[in-house]
């Protein structure tokens, strides 16, 4: 038997390479002949100990010429086998690249799972669309795979090694679902529109030296910053005892997003995503939180970096958490924010130029306290130790509200404005043996009741409250020669790569640019959407470094403005007349021509609003015909049904809740089959020539629905019925060929 070097190991291989066939079953050691293979049925690894070497092979889906949100199928499947190795594949155009179920000691190495499934995003640089929000709260039925896809998806596996794989320009990189005792290292799953790594009910795993940068959606610089539950690393529902070390997860929705899960919060009140260690990671430039970790016990965040996030660490309802030796800087809201937490230890961190360094609070919430978690757990804010930290140029170093037994000792303060703000009475507050640089200890005592400060090392005191009692020491405290009490040495993890962004790489949230398919490289000019449909006018956005664009070829009867200009830019396309038109624009970007296709329907809509009485919690009207037979509360004539009311009233004459909308128009269409689209919150129905095309008459958050209809040339009637219960309200309509 011959041997060859294969991924740093001597592995027996077949005597010659074999061509790949659709649905091929892999047994033994198989080397596939290099080339591109278009497959419609997955390649299946069916034997223990099998080795599938796909060096030089590209697997393409038979549907790869479709839009990325229509990709389907799986390229490679391994199920119920052990000691299998899958290596060197390049996989394009699938819903899932590699799927493994109930496998033990599986190895996936050196594969490229780029350019697989991803959702088309509806948010634009000028407006967020709530349809783009992810929903990671359920995955026991593989909802993540069904709804969002993945480059590599592991379910109920044990002892897996995922090493040295790459995935860009997809939605999710690697998913571990109910997968334990595995190793994920030296991978690069960046520029994803969902999660670089997602974990569900997965424990005792080691995740080290990976790149999960620019896993983000829901962001437009200086306009909106939501993240929409995207994250470099997502850890949901009973994921415990994992180690995450030396990863780069910068420029994400969250850098790291951990949640105990609905089982803890809504069913049992116990459990959680507990005892996880985050060591030496970079979670900077997060759209929302560098680290979010909620409703969980005993997690440790040590020696991580969080720069330029909204919150460096958000740890609501967490307890027994160690936050030690992190560097947290330039966070817009707070370096560390914890609501209703207890017994948390904050030691040896550096806080610099944050709005607030540490923010702790609690408030009364009868509804939450009635939930299983609220009944089973301590939800007070109490027993914190804030020790030996350095606060440098934060607007406010520490802010407390309704918090008990807070020890703030041996810290160094050099604040811009306030060292300590006490917003309500905080019993058993210990503020002592701290050093205040710059000569001023500024305490904002909003409680207006006695707050006792112990002896601190400062020269002058300046108080904004009237009842602060303080002592002063004249000598600086002795250095703690024992080091930080809750520190840990670097964990011995796998991997040899340096995952962190190079010093010359452009950093900062201004480098996050989202197209209609996800994050893109800001160093290049981009045009999006490349294909779109709208009712009324269409808009094309150009982003990228400073430069110029020029619109060359324009097909169809449309106005285009502007035809040339500087990047970034918005190009507005308006049809000459009412009806339906498809146009192609050829736009020159830095010498490269790019085509953009837009379908536009144009006809005015008559919009009428009606009111209805509450008939029960989250109930739609019992008698819809009676609602819309009543005199309308108000009416409008609009060019497009493109309403995002949020929680506000549509007009001064219409209430913000329990209102109905009826929109009607007639439009001339050429013969063909069309797709109708609605975005709604809550119920929606769309009729074409009185025939139902879309029906989603349910209470729901903002979501897109789609229906298909076929018509002949002529004028056709459209009618949209919409019903809003309460909360946010939304209604959009458009059609496409």
Reported by name, the CATH topology of the domain at 603-736 is: Jelly Rolls
Biggest beta-sheet profile: 17 strands, parallel
The CATH architecture of the domain at 603-736 can be named as Sandwich
**DSSP helical segment count:** 5
Draw up the topology in text.
Layout: E1 3-6, E2 9-12, E3 25-26, E4 29-31, E5 35-39, E6 43-45, E7 51-53, E8 57-61, E9 74-79, E10 85-87, E11 90-92, E12 96-101, E13 107-109, H1 143-148, E14 150-155, E15 161-163, E16 166-167, E17 172-177, E18 183-185, E19 188-189, E20 195-200, E21 206-208, E22 219-220, E23 224-225, E24 231-236, E25 243-245, E26 254-259, H2 262-268, E27 277-279, E28 289-294, E29 300-302, E30 305-307, E31 311-314, E32 322-324, E33 327-329, E34 334-339, E35 345-347, E36 350-352, E37 356-361, H3 366-369, H4 372-376, E38 381-387, E39 390-392, E40 396-401, E41 403-409, E42 412-414, E43 418-422, E44 430-432, E45 435-436, E46 440-445, E47 451-457, E48 460-463, E49 468-473, E50 513-515, E51 518-520, E52 526-528, E53 531-535, E54 538-554, E55 558-561, E56 564-575, E57 579-589, E58 592-602, E59 605-611, H5 624-629, E60 634-638, E61 642-646, E62 659-669, E63 672-681, E64 683-688, E65 691-696, E66 703-711, E67 714-724, E68 729-736
Parallel strand pairs: 3-6, 4-7, 5-8, 6-9, 7-10, 8-11, 9-12, 10-13, 12-14, 13-15, 14-17, 15-18, 16-19, 17-20, 18-21, 20-24, 21-25, 24-26, 25-27, 26-28, 27-29, 28-31, 29-32, 30-33, 31-34, 32-35, 33-36, 34-37, 35-38, 36-39, 37-40, 38-41, 39-42, 40-43, 41-44, 42-45, 43-46, 46-48, 47-49, 53-58
Antiparallel strand pairs: 1-2, 22-23, 50-51, 52-54, 54-56, 54-57, 55-56, 57-58, 59-60, 59-62, 61-68, 62-67, 63-66, 63-68, 64-65, 64-67
């Amino acid at each position: 038997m011959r041997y060859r070097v294969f991924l740093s190991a001597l592995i027996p291989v077949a005597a010659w390479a074999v061509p790949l066939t659709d649905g091929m079953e892999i047994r033994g050691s198989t080397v596939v002949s290099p080339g591109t293979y278009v497959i419609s049925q997955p390649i299946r690894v069916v034997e223990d100990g099998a080795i599938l070497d796909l060096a030089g092979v590209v697997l393409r889906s038979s549907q790869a010429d479709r839009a990325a949100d229509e990709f389907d199928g799986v390229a490679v499947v391994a199920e119920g086998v052990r000691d299998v190795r899958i290596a060197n594949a390049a996989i394009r155009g699938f819903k899932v690249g590699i799927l493994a179920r109930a496998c033990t000691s599986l190895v996936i190495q050196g594969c490229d799972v780029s350019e697989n499934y991803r959702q088309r995003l509806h948010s634009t640089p000028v407006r967020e669309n709530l349809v783009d929000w992810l929903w990671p709260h359920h995955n026991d039925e593989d909802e993540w795979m069904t709804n969002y896809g993945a480059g590599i998806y592991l379910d109920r596996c044990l002892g897996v090694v995922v090493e040295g794989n790459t995935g860009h320009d997809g939605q999710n990189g690697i998913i571990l679902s109910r997968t334990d005792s595995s190793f994920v290292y030296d991978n690069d799953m960046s520029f994803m529109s969902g999660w670089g790594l997602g974990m569900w009910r997965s424990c005792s795993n080691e995740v080290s030296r990976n790149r999960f940068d620019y896993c983000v959606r829901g962001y437009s610089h200086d306009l909106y910053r939501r993240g929409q539950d995207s994250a470099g690393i997502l850890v949901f529902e009973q994921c415990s005892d994992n180690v995450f070390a030396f990863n780069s997860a910068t420029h994400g929705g969250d850098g790291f997003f951990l949640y105990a899960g609905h089982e803890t919060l809504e069913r049992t009140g116990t459990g959680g995503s507990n005892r996880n260690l985050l060591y030496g990671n970079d979670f900077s430039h997060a759209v929302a939180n560098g680290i979010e970790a909620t409703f969980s016990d005993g997690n440790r965040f040590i020696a991580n970096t969080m720069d330029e996030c909204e919150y460096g660490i958000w740890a609501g309802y967490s307890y027994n958490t160690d936050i030690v030796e992190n560097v947290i800087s330039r966070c817009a809201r707070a370096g560390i924010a914890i609501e209703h937490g207890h017994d948390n230890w904050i030691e040896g961190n550096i806080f610099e130029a944050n709005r607030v360094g540490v923010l702790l609070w609690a408030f009364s919430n009868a509804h939450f306290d009635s939930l299983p978690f609220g009944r089973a757990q301590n939800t007070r804010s109490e027993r914190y130790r804030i020790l030996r930290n350095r606060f440098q140029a934060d607007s406010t170093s520490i802010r407390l509200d309704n918090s008990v037994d807070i020890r703030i000792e041996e810290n160094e303060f050099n604040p811009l404005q306030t060292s300590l703000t006490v917003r309500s009475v905080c019993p058993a507050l210990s503020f002592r043996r701290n050093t205040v640089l710059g000569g001023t200890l500024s305490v904002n005592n909003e409680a207006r009741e006695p707050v006792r400060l112990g002896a601190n090392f400062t020269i002058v005191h300046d108080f904004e409250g009237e009842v602060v009692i303080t002592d002063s020491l004249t000598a600086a405290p002795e250095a703690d020669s024992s080091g930080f009490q809750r520190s840990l040495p670097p964990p011995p993890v796998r991997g040899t790569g340096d995952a962190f962004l190079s010093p010359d790489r452009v950093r900062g949230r201004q480098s996050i640019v989202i197209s209609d398919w996800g994050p893109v490289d800001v160093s290049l000019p981009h045009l999006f959407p490349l294909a779109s449909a709208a009712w009324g006018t269409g808009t094309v956005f150009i982003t990228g470094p400073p430069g110029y664009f020029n619109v060359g070829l324009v097909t169809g009867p449309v106005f285009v403005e502007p035809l040339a200009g500087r990047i970034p830019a918005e190009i507005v396309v308006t049809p000459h007349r009412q009806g339906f038109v498809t146009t192609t624009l050829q736009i020159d970007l830095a010498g490269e021509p790019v085509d953009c296709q837009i379908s536009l329907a144009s006809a005015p809509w008559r919009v009428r609003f009606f009111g209805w009485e509450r008939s029960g919690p989250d109930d739609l009207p019992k008698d819809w015909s009676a609602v819309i037979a009543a005199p309308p509360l108000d009416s409008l004539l609009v060019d497009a049904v493109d309403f995002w009311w949020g929680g506000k009233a549509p007009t001064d004459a219409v209430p913000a809740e329990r209102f109905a909308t009826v929109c009607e128009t007639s439009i001339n269409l050429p013969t063909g089959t069309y797709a109708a689209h609605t975005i709604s919150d809550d119920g929606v129905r769309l009729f074409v020539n009185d025939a139902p095309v879309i029906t989603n008459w349910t209470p729901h958050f903002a979501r897109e629905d789609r229906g298909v209809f076929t018509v002949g040339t002529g004028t056709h009637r459209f009618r949209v019925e919409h019903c809003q219960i309460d909360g946010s309200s939304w209604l959009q309509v458009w059609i496409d060929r």
